[in-house]
Write a structure and sequence with these properties.
Layout (H helix, E strand, L loop, with lengths): L8 H4 L3 H18 L6 H8 L3 H7 L3 H12 L12 H17 L1 H13 L3 H28 L9 H17 L6 H16 L5
Helix pairs in contact: 2-3, 2-5, 2-7, 3-4, 5-8, 6-10, 7-8, 8-9, 9-10
Length: about 200
């Protein structure tokens, strides 16, 4: 399911400002009270729209949250080009830590539990957390291969898998995602894993 296929997106496109207000309200409430306690009525009140507007476009809460996630993460992250694998990885980790410390991090952690129970949310989370970032990870690894920094068979998915596992674990433990953590992940984990040499 793509951002344009999320239920209700076609109808809501006719009022982009109202749609943005609704999705911003969804994110604010998710960060404040969490997925389970967020209500459709609260979203309508915060966005200053009628309940009918909400329910007409998104009859169920998972559909509304999925639409808000797709809207929030509709753009792919910028592709770093620092001239080295370490530089690119530090740029990626620094940006990810900044996002994880903010509203996006609060919402992602809160929605992940609900996504395990709802396929609409699960698919949208997969798109936001993996598909939108995969092209950048592929490019980073491809350039590292060309520079001779990693073996030719290095799988870009390995970068995604290790990076996001460590970020999520750190975030769930309510520990700070700071520059020291970013350097630790890059120097002590990602570079040794990615720069392995075939035995």
């Amino acid at each position: 399911m793509t951002a344009t296929q999320v239920p209700g997106a076609r109808a809501a496109r006719r009022t982009p400002e109202r749609r943005a207000a609704i999705f911003d309200s969804v994110f604010a409430l998710l960060a404040e009270v969490g997925y389970d306690r967020m209500t459709m009525d609260a979203v309508a009140a915060r966005a200053h729209v009628s309940k009918a507007t909400i329910y007409r476009n998104w009859p169920e809460k998972p559909e509304l949250v999925a639409a808000a996630l797709s809207y929030r993460f509709k753009d792919s992250p910028p592709l770093p080009d620092c001239g080295s694998l370490r530089g690119d990885l530090l740029a990626i980790l620094t940006a990810a830590c900044q996002a994880g410390n903010g509203l996006d991090g609060e919402v992602i952690v809160g929605v992940m539990t609900a996504a395990a129970r709802n396929p609409v949310l699960a698919q949208t989370m997969h798109e936001a957390m993996y598909e939108k970032k995969h092209a950048a990870h592929q490019a980073v690894i491809r350039r590292a291969v060309q520079r001779g920094e990693v073996p030719p068979d290095t799988d870009p998915h390995l970068l995604h898998e290790v990076l996001h596992s460590m970020l999520l674990t750190r975030r769930l433990e309510s520990l700070q995602l700071d520059d020291e953590f970013a350097r630790h992940v890059v120097d002590d984990v990602l570079l040794p894993v990615l720069c392995r040499r075939a035995m």
